[in-house]
Design a protein that fits this description.
Elements lengths: L3 E8 L3 H13 L5 E6 L5 H16 L3 E6 L4 H6 L8 H6 L15 H19 L2 E6 L7 H4 L9 E2 L1 H4 L4 H10 L24 H10 L1 H13 L10 H16 L7 H18 L1
Parallel strand pairs: 1-2, 1-4, 2-3, 4-5
Helix pairs in contact: 1-8, 9-10, 11-12
């Protein structure tokens, strides 16, 4: 027996998926359900934006579903006890708790907080329907569309079909009155505000514009066994950013040999004090 088609749209809360949903509704295309997966670590302005889009979706007669892993980000970061294959970690850190900070080789955050949660929900829907999954990749993200995991027959990429770029999507959202409280003027992308894979520029901006969130990163970093980044702990980044601000006030350069010499001295002194 042929299953009934069921149109599901993935909604991250960002500009691309927002533009996709708004234009699909505006064009009168069928949508049966919109899925948003809460990572526990969205910016406050993102949660406000999600509620605005939820209202538009539900007023259009479309189901809006908010998913969330039962285990929080903080639990997985600090308390979860995974089966560890790396004996070096067990020995070095005395059988540590939690996944600790994600890294390039271990991006557990996206996997556990989004991908697994969404896929589990879609598997349940697939038992009853033939699910057509709409995803908000833009035409300037062809490398993402070409990945094997994104080449499924039931996947559809409306923004690619419309030849919309990321810039087009953001412009459309602004025209519709959505601005995420100017987050896109501060960051290029934003999912997990505590992501250690952000650039130094983005982390500077996070510390400057969201000091209360930066404080939480410092607190989390002090509780877990892997440092925030491979090159700096969060506390070391704090020392670096303080030194940068001090030198800027003094009219000195922050990308020079004497800056890095001074930074190295401060970091070594801090490490010695911690022993």
């Amino acid at each position: 027996m042929r299953k009934e088609n069921y149109i599901v749209v993935s909604f991250s809360g960002g500009k691309d998926s927002t533009a996709m949903i708004l234009h699909l509704i505006e064009s009168g295309e069928q949508i049966d359900e919109v899925l948003f997966c809460d990572t526990y670590k969205e910016f406050p302005a993102m949660y406000d934006h999600v509620e605005k889009i939820r209202s538009v979706v539900e007023e259009s007669g479309i189901r809006f579903t908010k998913l969330k892993n039962e285990k929080s980000y903080d639990y997985l970061l600090l308390e979860h006890q995974p089966k560890r294959r790396n004996k070096h970690i067990i020995e070095k850190y005395n059988d540590p708790k939690g996944y600790s900070w994600p890294g390039i080789r271990s991006r557990w955050c996206t996997n556990h907080m989004k991908i697994k949660v969404i896929n589990q929900y879609l598997r349940e829907l697939n038992k009853q329907y033939y699910v057509i999954h709409l995803i908000g990749f833009t035409c300037d993200e062809a490398h993402r569309v070409k990945r094997a995991t994104n080449q499924k027959k039931n996947h559809r990429y409306p923004l690619v079909e419309w030849k919309w770029t990321q810039e087009d999507a953001l412009r459309y959202c602004y025209l519709k009155g959505y601005d995420w409280e100017e987050l896109y003027q501060i960051f290029h992308r934003f999912i997990f505000w505590c992501c250690p894979l952000q650039s130094l520029k983005e982390l500077r901006n996070l510390r400057k514009h969201f000091p209360e969130l930066w404080k939480q990163i410092l607190e989390m970093d002090a509780k877990t066994w892997r440092t925030f980044r491979a090159d700096f702990s969060a506390q070391e980044l704090e020392l670096r950013f303080q030194l940068e601000e001090q030198r800027i006030r003094q009219g000195k350069r922050i990308h020079s040999k004497d800056f890095f010499d001074e930074l190295r001295y401060k970091l070594n002194s801090n490490r010695e004090d911690a022993v």
